[in-house]
User: Fold these one by one.
Assistant:
Number 1:
Amino acid sequence: MRKKPKIAFVTYIMMMGGIEKSLISMLEQIPKEKFDITLFVVHSGGELYDKIPSHVKVKNLFENNRRIAKTVWKYIKSGRFITAFSVILNATFLKYGYGNKDEFNESLRCSKTMPMESTKYDVAISYSSLLSLPVVYVINNIVAKKKMLWIHSDLEDLSTDKDISLVKKLRKYFKLYDHIICVSYHALEKFNKVFPNLPTDITVFYNILDKNKIVKFSKESKGFNDNFKGTRILTTGRLSVEKGQEIIPKVLLRLLKNGYNVRWYCIGDGPIRKRLSSMIERYNLEENFILLGIKQNPFPYFKNCDLYVQPSQEEAYCITVAEARVFHKPIVTTNTGASEQIRHEKTGLVVQYNEVQIYESIKRLLNDQKLKDRLIKNLRLETVDTTLEMEKFYKLIEQTGYSLKS
């Protein structure tokens, strides 16, 4: 029997987010008869944890409360006393909060309290945010022939002078990766701006989206159940500052004051939910701005909405815009990585993160049926399925010496 290449993915937690959804889609595409896949999660749980394919082995990096004690004892038994002391020191810093408390420094310290993985892999992949533990864990704690770093974020925020120290630390680690994969050309451009001239292979790999599976799931229910007869606007994503939902109440107020019969729904949860709830109460929008929370299957809502709006301040790719395209929904999106999927006035409208611009674009779609029909027609002609992107991945695997041809 031909030996399977061993692939390790390392992520943070399987919550309902774009990174995690694209990871699940990617794992589903990798044929189990050709690959031996292990998924390392920093924390178990999350809405998508149970969606991990059954053939994928899962290891929780924090599953054992005696992990640090075992690691120290292991090093002492092998005579590595300095390493054992380093583990104790870094564990103490983490527990009592000594030193620099930023997320990346804590990740560095945390990796130093963890043992090396005993299994050697052909490929190890950090599939998480840039400041999280997986980025350093893949470099410090896993032995692999090739190491890959997936970039899911718009790095605009790291271009300021105050981030110079952090950029230098990140650059040190990024140089150690064999391949860096950005999820869009927008993300690639931002990455190269902040980290120019890295001696690393950098390429674009669109997030995996399986159109057939999405369409199948959309038929499981009707989604909306409030019998609203007006225009349903949908926005999906983690409720957070970078996703831009805080602009929705003011845009919605403008629409309602100008006589438009609209109701705006948000799928997702996150740190600004309470703030959004307060804004809904302050502006008396209880009937028109609906927070639906997390939906394990959001696709019936995509299928049955009238417009899809993505008001993000930052996006690298935005899988929810791709999901809206599957259902040929007229789309308004801000000029981020999400807009890379949209041809302005052909398959959607691209605007700045601006209350007036978002309002005017939605108003255009509500008033101009010919424009809506044109967008829908053009969206029907597009191929949204990105599963062919997996060929890029398989070519990278073959660089480790494996032939994947059957």
Number 2:
Amino acid sequence: MYTISYVDRTNISMALPAMSRDLRMDPVQAGNVAGVFFWSYLLLQIPAGYLANRWSAKRLISILLVVWGFCAAGCGLVHTYRELWVMRVLLGIAESGVWPATLVLLSHWFPRNERARANALWMVCLPLAVVISSPFSGWVLDHWNWRVMMIVEGALPLLWLIIWQVFIDDRPSEAKWISAAELNYLESTLENEAVALERVDPNPSLGTFFRPQVLLLVLISFLRNITDFGFLIWLPSALESAKKLSNTTTGVLLALPFSVGIVSMILNSWHSDKSGERRGHMSVTFAVGGIFLIAGVLMSGQWPGLAFACICLTAVGTNGHLGPFWAIPTETLPRKLAGPVMGFVNSVGNLGAFFGSLAVGYLNKHTGGFLYGFGLLGIVLLVASTLCLFLSDTRSSAAAGKL
């Protein structure tokens, strides 16, 4: 489900070169329509986290599947820059509730010592969406055009809704396939963990949103998204400008860094769960991504092949930390506030995607290339790595019940 969601928000990166020519957009306008999605993406994050906890994550996501499908397909029907801008805003609203609702759904199924792996195996959808869709999108662009690509990929959530309704359950107690032993284990373990957190923080308030640790998570998420989407949105254009490649070849090359991201997410989250440590596992991956992105920029003039290999390792920084990062709120906050806080962190953090895509577009327009823009993204990853070290150790904070 979320792979389809991510495809429908990011497929504009493959379409951007042709779309810019057809709609007569300059690089700043192109970066704006790619990133404006994330301003409207703010709107339903906190309400969706609340509704998923109090009502039903499954039903909420079912409604959103339909709405974002129509909005995504609508991006293929526009004829002006302004129309595209409006459709991207509507798509952001439609998708904004999906992320916190899914995190709440996972927290109903996986205990603390499995949660980073569960989050990572779900969030594999982020790089996997690029790996799957980029070659396909490139092939469609080579044989038809960007309008066909947008409409076809926008129809996918409407088809997926049937599978979602049949196979997804909000809680283990609602699943018919689970054994009695598994059900008893999950319900007792999750209840004991929830009671422990409630006991330490029995009267959580809105002040939770402004605790230093929550604000640090917001800032780290903001910096991560600057790099992730600045990198994702503009890498196809950078590849096209460096070498005159077909859309299909560009799509295949774009899939390589995100394949690295998948491996790093799974391995890092597995080790984080095994050790119970979160912040160090986040800091190291950010540092690796930043160092290799800067190295790729410095090598691009003389050794383009080696530079691209370094750029592939950038995905360690943009994806490898996600499992441990999103385990922190659900294992250190009372259940009633975990969903809204995750929505708050994700919504404000995702604004970084707007500034990342816009900044790279601006630097490209004024310098005539992508070296300065990608160099800036590498520095941002190193700053995020440093900030992770200021987070509280969740092994002790979980025991204390404080974030």
Number 3:
Amino acid sequence: MMISEEKKKEYLEAEGMMCPHCGSDDLSWDAMEVSGFDGSSWQDVECNSCSKAWKDIYKLADIYEDD
């Protein structure tokens, strides 16, 4: 079952801290993975309440220069 656009929006507004399927906050995250080809990164996420799994996809949002 695909996640609806409405559920995706709710999930992103909650900053990925709740299951887009059942609403639980009991989630587990795997290590972040990065592609060397296009700079994309993703993280596998699983809900411990309903056992659904998905990938969070990340993109560069800012830069901070070390002093």
